[in-house]
Amino acid sequence: MRLRIRLAALLLVVLLSLPAFSPADSSLAGQSERKADFPSAAGQPASTDESSVEASNKESSEKETAEELHTTLSMVLTAREHLMLDLIDQQRNQVGLGHLELDDTMIELARFRSQDMASQNYFSHVAPDGSSARDLMVDARIGPGLMGEILGRNNSADSVESVHFVVDAFMKSPDHRDAIVNDRFVTVGVGAATGSDGMSYYAVLFFGP
Fold first, then answer.
1. Distance between CA 75 and CA 63 in Å, rounded?
2. pLDDT computed for residue 143 by the predictor
3. Spatial separation of the C-alpha atoms in residues 26 and 133, rounded to whole Å
4. Are residues 77 and 108 in contact, defined by beta-carbon separation less than 8 angstroms?
5. In angstroms, rounded to a whole number, what is the distance separating the alpha carbons of residues 66 and 117?
6. How far apart are CA 69 and CA 65, in angstroms?
7. Torsion over CA of 74, 78, 84 and 89, rounded to 10 degrees?
8. Nearest to residue 6, comparing CAs of 36, 31, 26, 35?
9. CA angle 35-114-203, nearest 5°?
């Protein structure tokens, strides 16, 4: 059986005044747009050593909470989804980036995207009804900010092999790699589904403020 792998990548920006959205022209092409600014973590300098210690303890506590949240939410992922997230985080770690934080709503949307493609037998950033990942995320009150979606599919019968094939292909494609190692993305949703024909579909949604 011949293995088929296809990819699609899309980055989009939702601005406060006017959303910008450009679908990829083909499954192997991607579009990207950047926000002009990015929020900075501005704060007041500590006036005493005690304040410095308190601020440091707060940062450590927030980091531990984020890690605990990542572990807790990852429990809801399927084996394929969990593997894909782990592989994506590994690629980010290799370039000095931290792991992405799972978001319940984005998981639901990514699953919907992959299941919709599997059930309706299409492979595109735009569904047959004209809706897109952007539409879903905006309707779910995610944003404004930088949004991204990367898609992959293959017909490998081995679920572990299938995920590895897709992530390997992501990293060999500049547009998909750029989404994975984008330091502006902080949250993620992962979805995986298999159609009646044995084709597995993967959707990864990203968001950054």
1. 19
2. 85
3. 16
4. no
5. 32
6. 6
7. 10
8. 26
9. 35
For residue 17, how many C-alpha atoms fall within 13 Å in the half-sphere facing its CB? 1
**pLDDT one-digit tens code per residue, 141-168:** 998 899 999 999 999 999 999 999 999 9
Q: Report how far apart, in Å, the C-alpha atoms of 165 and of each of 45, 183, 189 are.
A: 48, 24, 19
- 85 in Cβ contact with 172 (< 8 Å): no
Phi/psi of residue 18, each to 5°?
Answer: -135, 115
Distance CA 194, CA 157 (A): 10
| Contact present, 24 and 9 (Cβ < 8 Å) | yes
Amino acid at position 132, single letter = S
80-96 pLDDT tens trace: 999 999 999 999 999 99
Place of tokens 């299941």: 115
CB contact at 8 A, 208 and 185: yes
For residue 86, how far is the Cα from the chain centroid? 12
Cα angle: 74, vertex 77, 80; to 5 degrees: 120
The count of other CB atoms within 10 Å of the CB of residue 105 is 16
Q: Check: CB of residue 191 under 8 Å from CB of residue 112.
A: yes
Beta strands in 21-144 (DSSP E): 30-31, 101-102
Residue 4 has which token pair? 């088929």
